[in-house]
Amino acid sequence: MNDRIESRTDPLAVLDAAYVLGALSPEDTSAFEEHLSSCESCARTVQELSRLPELLAMVNDKHVPGQPQDPDRLPALLAKVRSRRWRTIAAMFAAVLAVASYLALVTRRHCCPTPSSALLGVDLGVG
Ligand SMILES: [Zn+2]
Fold it and tell me: Largest CB tally within 10 Å, which of 15, 43, 58, 98?
């Protein structure tokens, strides 16, 4: 909580991780290092994050979440996804067709007098 308050009042506090990862420009690095000499909070945070580059270096392709474990399975997975997509589209098309057929049937039933009633001059009072 105290660190949060300090980060709001310390505009350079947001640069700590970028500094540790070496992502700052040379000018920003110099400014941040000068700030570190006088800011205990940022110095502590940099100390806490100092192992971050080492930990990130340990990550390899096998540890990346969401990536297929076996690259040979990728074509099969893509085929499965495409198959599901087409089944969904076909189901949606069938549903739209069913609703359209129903509406056409209901509209026709209520819309127009049947030819026989029209010929007889009978008003059914429908529509
Ligand atoms: Zn600071």
Answer: 15
